[in-house]
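User: Okay, second chain of the day. Same drill as before: sequence in, structure tokens out.
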Amino acid sequence: MEKRYQVFVSSTYRDLQQERQQVMQALLELDCIPAGMELFPAADDDQWSLIKQVIDDCDYYLAILGGRYGTTSKDGKSYTQMEYEYAVSKNKPVVAFLHKDPGKIPSEKCEESPDGKHGLAAFRQLAENKMCKYWETPAELGSVVSRSIIKLMKSRPAVGWVRADLVPDESASKEILTLKKKIENLQNELESVRTSAPMGTSDLAQGDEELELTFRLRGLGPNSQEITVKSTWNEIFSVISPLMIDKATEQQLSGAIRDYFLPRLPAGTSAIMVNLSNRDFHRLKLQYRALGLITKETSQKSLKDTSTYWTLTSYGDLLMTQANAARSTRPAPAVVVPESAT
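Assistant: Same drill. Structure tokens below.
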């Protein structure tokens, strides 16, 4: 949404009319909204509350110091300095633009009274303690202001103003809030679906139900033999699931099952090659897929890689974490039953 920034320009008026015109032109070219002395032809206590309100509404504050201190309030402080100090107190981004060589300013544009000269010198010193830039001619001032505002927009982006027809009305805002709530509910439902068993899986073999795995053993001769080992669906899943936290090939999964069950083979079994039967491996793979625990990895592979990869679903990752997380060995805290009041 396109924004426009309101910039308060503070300065004395009659001696800096050409300079203010250059500043206003620079701000308008940047699509900014200038505000300042032109709105308040007479600075007095009655207008001070209005001036503060305009500064509050502005995004940036600029002060231009030439050769005059300006109209002062009852306490002897100029309204320009009061505006500057108020903007600083409100944490507005403030930049002061000071004349580079006050000695070259024509006498008719300079302070004549000692109080005015002293006040201007003190104000310049105050402004130089914060961000300030220097200028000598009206054209140079306009250029310096333009560069400074662009830098402020990047370093300290403000709230800004937008056209009223671009701002959602009350009914549109309510509709947006309703849609956001619907999106939040749908996201929660989706997360619940991802971390729960798919519908229709309650009748499938799973959990601690037993199954038999067949291993083929090949010795030195041409003959081979088959040996069956009993296990459960949960036990096998706890073996292969950590391999699929990222992704794993079918060879890696089958090999992990074989290595896990080798110690269970009957004593005296001698073989140079032991493999899980292809039939049982495919049965395991299809069952875990039907249970919503694993899914085929579809990310881009190299042309030379012909392997099939499997990874965990969100639901599978949850069950894997629960099945493989270490259990606490600390005894449960004793329950202390308070004695009945007598």
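DSSP finds ten helices and eleven strands in the chain.

User: Thanks, on to the next one.
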